[in-house]
């Protein structure tokens, strides 16, 4: 009585929970809404194209050829930083597998003791002391973990992100531990590029107007007007944003902490992550180690779809020879039964942050391959 | 036909955040492993892991150099070069495999690499083999 299973290999990114989109077979990871990101790309590429088309030939001849060369380098750097920020994993924390979630639940229940029925259980918070400062770690009901310090759950991407800064629609991704420095370099170099283009637009208009008059200049290079407009508005926002993030970096704070006022006001000067030295803080954020992604996006896993439906009770012991298939649960009474484990769970909707019920029956899709690993260990004994 | 079943339970060692956000695991000995493995061995393993992570995350001369070089090339160099962190992670997975072979497997335990759990926990899988039922004689 063996079911015919069709096994196929899938990449792990196809089964990851959360609301991200993946491209290039898991190499690229972004948020779902990408419209504003395309707008950002369009504005940068469009404005620079106009600059290269209208201003650069004149400036290269009349001033110096270094001007367009430097503009090209700056433009390429900006695009590289933008793509790096947008396409990389910001530091997503994988959700807890069932065993880990249960383990944490048991610890919480042990810590809470007996709560009389009808009363609300106390909020799930763990206190840790970091550099003589008590930091509260909150429990994430979606990911079923106690969030590490500085991590936060992004509701747009539906992931917990380590050192969460903010979700940036302009880059179409969250900004977190892994891509913060690229984001900062993007804002910095984009500010420089904007100032550069703006300045040389003015220089170009002035130089040409001396020869031909102002109106003729505008007629000959209509792109200039558009560029000046775009640059003018971009300039203020980008310079402001760069300044703000420079301030945050010097204090070793995240945008999230700044908005919540975690280390300001009456808590000022108590940031436990700060080295109390601007240079050290900058060095740590910008020159620190490059953290690898802990989401194994391109790893392979088995996915089984039953070709013939066959009811298998929880205690069937199939001869191992028959299978490359998943042999979840039957031998492992602790684990979930096969009925609960469905390889292509339509991304189970998280039950929201205030869910008091630990949904033990609901499993994140990633549960399946891990159970495979354990049962195969068991089988091999 | 041999009918055996394994009870697999997991024991988790959590992160130690007392020194901030650096990657560090608690050296507290979990009670469930009391009669499975000696305290000293486990502590030694966790301490070695912690020291490896400290080395990976050290902000010093080498990380500055790596950062500046990468920045100058718009981080394209990372497509061909392995970062220091990745090198240390490889070293760690080799160490864990060695520890499993030498120490933990003979005691019926399996240590998993924290990177597989999002660097949140070091988990020990305990395997208890026993046979079920007497309907068929086991070999």
TrEMBL record, chain A:
<keyword id="KW-0564">Palmitate</keyword>
<dbReference type="GO" id="GO:0005789">
    <property type="term" value="C:endoplasmic reticulum membrane"/>
</dbReference>
<feature type="transmembrane region" description="Helical">
    <location>
        <begin position="66"/>
        <end position="83"/>
    </location>
</feature>
<feature type="transmembrane region" description="Helical">
    <location>
        <begin position="182"/>
        <end position="203"/>
    </location>
</feature>
<keyword id="KW-0812">Transmembrane</keyword>
<dbReference type="GO" id="GO:0006612">
    <property type="term" value="P:protein targeting to membrane"/>
</dbReference>
<dbReference type="GO" id="GO:0000139">
    <property type="term" value="C:Golgi membrane"/>
</dbReference>
<dbReference type="GO" id="GO:0019706">
    <property type="term" value="F:protein-cysteine S-palmitoyltransferase activity"/>
</dbReference>
<feature type="region of interest" description="Disordered">
    <location>
        <begin position="304"/>
        <end position="381"/>
    </location>
</feature>
<keyword id="KW-0449">Lipoprotein</keyword>
<feature type="transmembrane region" description="Helical">
    <location>
        <begin position="223"/>
        <end position="244"/>
    </location>
</feature>
<protein>
    <recommendedName>
        <fullName>Palmitoyltransferase</fullName>
        <ecNumber>2.3.1.225</ecNumber>
    </recommendedName>
</protein>
<comment type="similarity">
    <text>Belongs to the DHHC palmitoyltransferase family. ERF2/ZDHHC9 subfamily.</text>
</comment>
<keyword id="KW-0256">Endoplasmic reticulum</keyword>
<feature type="domain" description="Palmitoyltransferase DHHC">
    <location>
        <begin position="136"/>
        <end position="260"/>
    </location>
</feature>
<keyword id="KW-0333">Golgi apparatus</keyword>
<keyword id="KW-1133">Transmembrane helix</keyword>
<keyword id="KW-0012">Acyltransferase</keyword>
<feature type="transmembrane region" description="Helical">
    <location>
        <begin position="36"/>
        <end position="54"/>
    </location>
</feature>
<feature type="compositionally biased region" description="Low complexity">
    <location>
        <begin position="358"/>
        <end position="369"/>
    </location>
</feature>
<dbReference type="InterPro" id="IPR039859">
    <property type="entry name" value="PFA4/ZDH16/20/ERF2-like"/>
</dbReference>
<keyword id="KW-0808">Transferase</keyword>
TrEMBL record, chain B:
<comment type="similarity">
    <text>Belongs to the ERF4 family.</text>
</comment>
<keyword id="KW-0472">Membrane</keyword>
<dbReference type="GO" id="GO:0006612">
    <property type="term" value="P:protein targeting to membrane"/>
</dbReference>
<dbReference type="InterPro" id="IPR051371">
    <property type="entry name" value="Ras_palmitoyltransferase"/>
</dbReference>
<dbReference type="Pfam" id="PF10256">
    <property type="entry name" value="Erf4"/>
</dbReference>
<feature type="domain" description="Golgin subfamily A member 7/ERF4">
    <location>
        <begin position="11"/>
        <end position="122"/>
    </location>
</feature>
<dbReference type="GO" id="GO:0002178">
    <property type="term" value="C:palmitoyltransferase complex"/>
</dbReference>
<protein>
    <submittedName>
        <fullName>Golgin A7 family member B</fullName>
    </submittedName>
</protein>
<dbReference type="GO" id="GO:0000139">
    <property type="term" value="C:Golgi membrane"/>
</dbReference>
<dbReference type="InterPro" id="IPR019383">
    <property type="entry name" value="Golgin_A_7/ERF4"/>
</dbReference>
């Amino acid at each position: 009585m063996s079911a015919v299973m069709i096994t196929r290999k899938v990449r792990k990114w196809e089964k990851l929970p959360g609301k991200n989109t993946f491209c290039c077979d898991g190499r690229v990871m972004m948020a779902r809404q990408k419209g504003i990101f395309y707008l950002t790309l369009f504005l940068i590429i469009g404005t620079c194209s106009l600059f290269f088309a209208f201003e650069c030939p004149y400036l290269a001849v009349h001033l110096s050829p270094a001007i367009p060369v430097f503009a090209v380098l700056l433009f390429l750097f900006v695009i590289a930083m933008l793509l790096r920020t947008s396409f990389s994993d910001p530091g997503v924390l994988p959700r807890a597998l069932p065993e880990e979630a249960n383990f944490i639940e048991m610890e919480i229940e042990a810590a809470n003791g007996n709560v009389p029925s009808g009363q609300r259980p106390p909020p799930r918070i763990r206190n840790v002391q970091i550099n003589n400062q008590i930091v509260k770690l909150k429990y994430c009901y979606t990911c079923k973990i106690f969030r590490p310090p500085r991590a936060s759950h992004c509701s747009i991407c539906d992931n917990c992100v380590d050192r969460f800064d903010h979700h940036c629609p302009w880059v179409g991704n969250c900004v977190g531990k892994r891509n913060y420095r690229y984001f900062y370099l993007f804002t910095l170099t984009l500010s420089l590029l904007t100032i550069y283009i703006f300045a040389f637009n003015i220089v170009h208009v002035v130089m040409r107007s001396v020869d031909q008059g102002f109106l003729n200049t505008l007629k000959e290079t209509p792109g200039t007007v558009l560029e000046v407009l775009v640059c003018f508005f971009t300039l203020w926002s980008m310079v402001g944003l760069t300044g703000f993030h420079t301030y945050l970096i010097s204090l070793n704070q995240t945008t999230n902490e700044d908005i919540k006022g975690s280390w300001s006001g009456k808590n000022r000067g108590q940031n436990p992550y700060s080295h109390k030295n601007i240079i050290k803080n900058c060095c740590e954020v910008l020159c620190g180690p490059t953290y690898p992604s802990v989401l194994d996006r391109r790893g392979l896993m088995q996915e089984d779809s039953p070709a013939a439906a066959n009811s298998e009770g929880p205690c069937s012991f199939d001869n191992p020879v028959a299978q490359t298939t998943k042999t979840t649960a039957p031998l492992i009474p602790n684990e979930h039964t096969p009925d609960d484990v469905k390889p292509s769970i339509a991304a189970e909707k998280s039950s929201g942050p205030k869910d008091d019920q630990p949904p033990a029956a609901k499993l994140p899709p990633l549960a399946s391959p891990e159970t495979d690993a354990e049962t195969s260990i068991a089988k091999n004994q | 036909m041999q009918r055996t079943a394994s009870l697999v339970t997991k024991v988790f060692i959590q992160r130690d955040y007392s020194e901030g956000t650096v990657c560090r695991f608690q050296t507290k000995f979990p009670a469930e492993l009391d009669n499975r493995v000696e305290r000293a061995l486990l502590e030694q393993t966790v301490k070695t892991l912690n020291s490896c992570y400290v080395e990976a995350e050290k902000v010093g001369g080498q990380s500055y150099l790596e950062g500046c070089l990468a920045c100058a090339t718009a981080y394209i160099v990372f497509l061909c070069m392995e970062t220091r962190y990745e090198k240390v992670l490889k070293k760690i997975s080799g160490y864990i495999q060695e520890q499993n072979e030498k120490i933990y497997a003979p005691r019926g335990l399996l240590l998993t690499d924290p990177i597989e759990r999002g660097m949140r926990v070091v988990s020990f899988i305990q395997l208890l083999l026993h046979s079920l039922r007497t309907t068929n004689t086991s070999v």
